[in-house]
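Repro:
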Amino acid sequence: MRIGEVARRAGVSTRALRYYEEQGLLAAERTDSGQRTYPESAVERVRLIQQFFAAGLPSRIVLQVLPCVETGEGPPELFELLASERDRITAAMADLAAARDALDHMIDVANHPTPEHCPALREPAWAPYDPSGAVMAAGSTVAAAPSDAATPDEHRSERQPSSAT
């Protein structure tokens, strides 16, 4: 079967098939003129590869999993590797949730600006923020009286997005 037919039947691009071949996930034979040909089973294999990618697995892990699919057996190390990939995805989801929460906070502040978050609303404009409401001259400090007002840190979401590693 030629590359275009496999791509059409599996629902992927021919470029994806070339990538799978480059990564060692899919094998193709070559005709005398250099065109790729695939066995009928390539369609099902490509669909399986797509399922692994949809599950968030990188091609280097898919390469390790495919032989186990073919034999029906996998070493314990493979299951540990899959569990660590699940942990990686769970951590990424937590980071995304924290980023979403931080963005929600920013949207709320933008919709309901206060002098704390918007320097232009301060008197005078762009003066340092003083939660006690006292007007501060540039460079001076004022001891704030205890209040029930929330501190700037209390307005931030509890989880801050982690830095990229």
